[in-house]
Amino acid sequence: MRRIHLALPLLLALSPPGIAAAQVTPTAEFSTERLAQHVRTLGSDAFEGRSPATAGETKTVAYLTEQFAKAGLQPGGDLKDGKRQWTQSVPLLRSEFAAAPHIAMTVGGRAVPLTQGNEIAARAPLTGDKALMLNKVPLVFAGYGVKAAERGWDDFKGQDLKGKVLVVLVNDPDFEGGEGQFGGKAMTYYGRWTYKYEEGARQGAAGVLVIHETEPASYGWATVKNSNTNAMFDIVRQNPRGEHPPLEGWIQRDLAAQLFAASRTSFEAMKAAARRKDFKPVSLNATLDLHGNAKTEVITSSNVVGILPGRTRPDETVIYTGHWDHLGIGQPDAKGDRIYNGAIDNGTGIAHMIEQARAFARGPRPERSVVFLAVTAEEKGLLGSEYYASNPLYPLGKTAGVINTDVMGVLGPARDFSVRGNQKFGLLDLLVEEAAKRGRRYTPDPRAGAGSFYRSDHFTLAKVGVPAMSFAPGDDLVNGGTARGLAWRKNYDATMYHQPADEFAPDWDYSGMAQDAELLHAVGLRLANSRDWPNWSSDSEFRAVRDRSAAEREQSAPQAQPLPAAPADKAGERG
Questions:
Q1: Domain coordinates in residue numbering, the chain
Q2: Within the chain, how many helices (H) and strands (E) appear?
Q3: Does pLDDT of 466 surpass 90?
Q4: pTM, 2 dp
């Protein structure tokens, strides 16, 4: 069995503000064979793409529960009869079209039939309605669909858009020019399709259609189709229409160009106009008909949760997160494959979490508790982590940090590493410092324009103030450098991301993932043995909410009796 085994310095010479240096950082071992086996299992056809509310979920939850127990964790989920369970129940609204919806537009007086998944990808309604019936609804171009008072921006200009379908551009107004009111090339939350749907609901719109373009979206139409034409999910909301307009969906750029041409303008002219602060909504010479019946139900999915209680401060936590779900069974690809295995996304992140749990359980018990949270329904909008953020099992104010892994490297070791987004916070400082001791450098997110910070489960915890990061493997590979790393990423985005081709390959090299796991172990262990509380930078949008929970952290935690470390693995006992 191949292991990555790295001894570390005993004393840190430097420490970033707010983080005290740990005196000892013990060695951690990670087996490449174990990592590969988890990815092979979770990414197999037997798990049917791991979609919530399917047989694939049942198998996945059972596998994670078994592996967490074998690793040496204790159940860390819901309380039942005074005992923790292995899962946190997550009620979700599930909605799916009973049959392909009838969709058509009238453009410039001419009927234009549309096919679900081709020119348009309409999502099953998440308003709780069992039917989506739109008849001759007017279309209005609403620029980027942004209303941001703090940036002096309003694409709506007070117009009454109730009952209309808004057509909006993906990303935010700075993407094309690289500068402006939205911080330049890096996407803000205003650029995310989730925000655009939310704002459409606030405007009282009958629907929002996002215009797809590969570069500003950061993925191709195949990803849009595969992610939006199957079953949709949302957390159960008291007022779902406050978050969702009746119609949510995407359209191809070519269809948008037809809409603009019929309105005596052009796609290029409208896109240029939308980048200006004085933009006003433009009524289009087009209407939309959409008729579809939806099967809706409230189902219960599960976050899987394991814990190692802290030795002296068990009420303080460090959390490792990752999503276990993928897209399940969907439309066939060109080869007829209908299973969206998600071996990389996110079988790799969950494999890391299982082995991270094993590493912690085999070592001395940390002062703080370490929680391992495998969340559901990330692919449906970060829903499992959003539910946890709203219904935390452990106090958010006393959560020292969250380390998320979503898509790990399978090409061997890298000289660099990154995190999703360009936010500044003490947890990142700690990661950079630990990596430097290992001869690795931090590369700022090369895809900040893709809004990567808002596309993984750490974001929902950041919104409630918890310092949270999502680790990203480096592109500067020891074997092949950045040329090989970037070529892999380009191919992955084009041919594998949210497609059936994301399948296990026997020639993947897990030594880089083991290297990354050792780094993330050192960061988590140092934080778990620290009395410090990382925070966001003073200008961060998450700083204020974190500061409001400061009183929780200032209270002295009760001293608990030391807990014994879990025994080391014995052959045949821990898988």
A1: 46-75+309-552, 95-296
A2: 15, 25
A3: yes
A4: 0.87
